[in-house]
Amino acid sequence: MAKDKPKISLLLTGGGARAAYQVGVLKAIAEWYPRVHHSPFSIYCGTSAGGINAIAIASYASCFRLGVKKLEWIWARLHSRRVFIASPYGMTNYLFKQGFARLQADYHERPPFGLLNNRPLRELLNQVNNYERLEKQILAGNLHGIAITASSYKSARSVSFFQGQPELCEWDRAKSKGRRSLISTEHLLASAAIPLVFPASRIGQTYYGDGSIHQLSPLRPSLKMGADKILMIDLINEKTEERDHTKAPGLASLGGHLMDTIFSDTLTADLENLSRTNTIIQALPEHERQRLQLKNVDHIHLSPSESFEPLAKKYYCHLPPMTRALMRLTGISPKDDAAITSYILFEPEYIQALINLGYEDTTEKETMLRKFLK
């Protein structure tokens, strides 16, 4: 990649099954380039399911369309049973073991808690990801850096595990740090471990959970790796129905509200801060910018044009029966709130609908995005 070209970062936020929307966006962008063409992005940052997408694309940085095709192939053939154990026996046995482990004496090491066993996801990631390709893309100069963010339950800090060019440095900030590491399946599982839904993942001597929990500055990994531009594909849930605010919120409503807050609010605040910083930098004289080593970072924030909830309600019946039963036992029903359902509905029809939505939204913004990606 030419050294004078701006470093464009692709930032993919978390959202469980909602991340299929990002596949549609990338599919539309890939069609604007020749069949054999390097990726327009040299920096990739991902959190939760967005991190899984980022790894798949970054591994094929030298052939962008091939990477997107592989990612679409994976998502198009995804089922709940390939993400978590969904059979009645498997779920009952797993929950029984979780409960029994907590009845044992304290000197027995207890497994991390999660309502769903994500062992199939571990097997899938080991099967479809070739992590050695990341280092090859870095050595070839096609990839400047990639970061996967997780949350440490030990330090209550956001940790971005990154891999990239030798000049990239680790960082320590309030509630956030960056650590150089060879990215593996464990990092992806840690970043995607939605609290209470999936068990935490252990890296070294520390347990990590979903990267969005303590991520106060989602843009920081991109900026620390030297991004000149940032394209963000967010998964903010646009509400379409007004609720009866006189009714007390149930478990489903509370859970959906907390999930949306975890995955969205910090990015909104960080974007406002970046915009203010850019305004200040533009007001400074050129010689002052150079002396302080400041630069304007252009950005585009993409988000769905429609709510995911109607689609989640429509395809809720495609969830495995035992999963639906477990959700109802915990008070979650599509009649109350489909926000939580939209995170775990890993079924082909729902996923394809999200891919199509992402594709259509991106096609409508083609002119703006083409100009940005030059």
What does this entry look like structurally?
Strands 1, 2, 3, 4, 5, 6, 7, 8, 9 and 10 form a ten-stranded mixed β-sheet that branches. The chain has 374 residues and is α/β, with parallel strands linked by helices. The chain has helices at 20-30, 49-58, 64-76, 88-101, 119-128, 132-139, 185-191, 220-224, 251-283, 286-292, 309-315, 321-329, 339-344, 348-364, 366-372; strands spanning 8-12, 43-47, 145-152, 158-164, 171-173, 176-180, 201-203, 206-209, 229-233, 298-302. Strand 1, helix 1 and strand 2 (43-47) form a beta-alpha-beta unit. It has a single domain (8-105, 117-237, 265-311, 348-373), classed as Cytosolic phospholipase A2 catalytic domain (3-Layer(aba) Sandwich).
Question: Could you write a compact summary of the structure shown?
Answer:
44% of the residues lie in helices and 13% in strands.
Task: Report low-confidence residues grouped into runs of 5 or more.
Answer: none
CATH topology: Cytosolic phospholipase A2 catalytic domain
Alpha carbon gyration radius: 21 Å
CATH hierarchy class name: Alpha Beta
Q: How many structural domains? A: 1
> How does the major sheet shape up?
10 strands, mixed
Structural class: alpha/beta
Shape: globular
Reported CATH architecture: 3-Layer(aba) Sandwich
Count the strands?
Answer: 10
Head-to-tail CA distance between termini? 13 Å
Would you list the SSEs in sequence order as H and E? EHEHHHHHEEEEHEEHEHHEHHHHH
Q: Averaging pLDDT over every residue, what do you get?
A: 88
Tell me what portion of residues adopts beta-strand conformation.
5-15%
Helix content: 40-55%
